[in-house]
User: Fold these one by one.
Assistant:
Number 1:
Amino acid sequence: MNTKVLITGGAGFIGSNLARRLLTMNYDVLVLDNLSEQIHGTNPESTSTLYNSIKNETNFINGDVRNQKDWEKALKDVEIVMHFAAETGTGQSMYEVSKYCNVNIYGTALLLDHIINKQHSIKKVILASSRAVYGEGKYYCPKDGSVFPKERKETNLLNGNFEPTCPICSSTVKVSPTDENSKLHPTSIYGISKLTQEKMLISVLKPLKIPVVTLRFQNVYGPGQSLSNPYTGILSIFSSLIKNNKKINIFEDGKESRDFVYISDVVDAIMLAIENSNADYQIFNVGSGEAVTISDVVKKLIALYDTSVPYNVSGNFRLGDIRHNVADLSKINKMIGFVPKYTFDQGLKLFTEWVDKQILNDLEYETSLDTMKSKNLLK
Ligand SMILES: NC(=O)c1ccc[n+]([C@@H]2O[C@H](COP(=O)([O-])OP(=O)(O)OC[C@H]3O[C@@H](n4cnc5c(N)ncnc54)[C@H](O)[C@@H]3O)[C@@H](O)[C@H]2O)c1
Ligand SMILES: [Zn+2]
């Protein structure tokens, strides 16, 4: 009998890509997903390419991780649980607090209640966590060595001082790759909910001797990612603005950076986490190990789409945003042999070629920014 895998959120960007890979490797794949409108549109049958890419090949339960009965249906005979269903917008989490906590935290609580109290055949649980658990990651201070700067002060940001400072001596610090032992001090409700998921799973499953693997994804991108969600996915948001000939507002001074990891590399890392028992009970960063500034992202996208929309570096900023991020991949490389295959330039080319073939609707990005402004979260 093929191993039965449940992917919660398996109709989403990462989950659907994982589902298709697992099918090629003869796993029996079951998806539990509520086809959230923000991701899949008003009528997923026609508005969601992601859902359509898996619905005929997998067993699909249209259900919600906030519903105990749906978990009961979904967990029957399952050996591996991939817990990927989540609300994922960092900015949005700051004003839809109860929704984020319900889906991400209460949903995980119901999974654990089931495992503790009901019959099951679960042998491994893998959590899609996020680099958001680190808040501002690791930096280097010439005087104090490795440091973990606190959330940036609003007064500094308002004055255009965007770089974090040393929490000990206040001098300027340089970004370093963030490893898994770095300080955990998330700056958003989203990050807090992801850290809570991590701790809940480890504290309950470890004593039960059910291996749990925590994967902290950096910014995942690639063909198939939602082009209609204005709350997350910076490459999609910029692509949609460029394609609709709209001006791009680059926040801060454009020198903020992120670690963009290509979707098939992420699926490679997840497969290693499933199949290699060295991964059991471990926490791993999953990224590219390459830092790219947001200004570079915009320039590269405009060049690849071969158009000329205007862009300006506005000095605007979102409260709770981090300044830099780049993952240290030593641990996942040493323990399970993960090596990303795609550079940002290679992955971005494939992403834009895919976007070129899509029909792009208006993203209502401006509306999402207005919402953030009205709640004093965007300055
Ligand atoms: N994409 C990234 O860059 C990234 C980075 C770090 C972590 N992650 C994590 O990876 C996971 C997958 O992210 P993604 O990018 O594929 O997101 P996604 O939004 O594309 O997929 C999430 C899926 O979960 C489903 N879902 C949402 N609420 C649900 C609920 N209450 N019940 C059942 N299903 C529900 C949605 O319909 C969607 O199909 C998430 O846990 C996210 O926090 C993603
Ligand atoms: Zn210092």
Note: The chain has one domain: 86-374.
Number 2:
Amino acid sequence: MEVEFNLENLKKCLCDCCPVQNKSRCVLDKMKIIQEISQDDLDSRIMIEEERIPALYCAEEKATITDLDSLQECQCDKCMVWKENNLFSGEPPGYFCRDGKAR
Ligand code: SF4
Ligand code: SF4
């Protein structure tokens, strides 16, 4: 079960508005990176910065974020990437930021 880390999927990803991570200082810092990346060169920058982009956790194994709020609800089951790639049948089925990429 491989989800591609690309601009199309990044636009569909709901992690940026997810309460599990949106109070994380680590994530807030990383969010600035997305704002700094201009639309013109996003596809090339995305290759360089994907490790630092706080989204699409189902596609990429990332460094563990330590200050997540796991009591909040993961948004993945509302996401088109999740539905299109049948991630509900994978392991883990959500909370990819905490539990690693979809397999
Ligand atoms: S399934 Fe979850 S991690 Fe993957 S793109 Fe959607 S919201 Fe982001
Ligand atoms: S993987 Fe799920 S829990 Fe983690 S930030 Fe994305 S939507 Fe929220």
Note: The chain is about 35% helix and 0% strand.
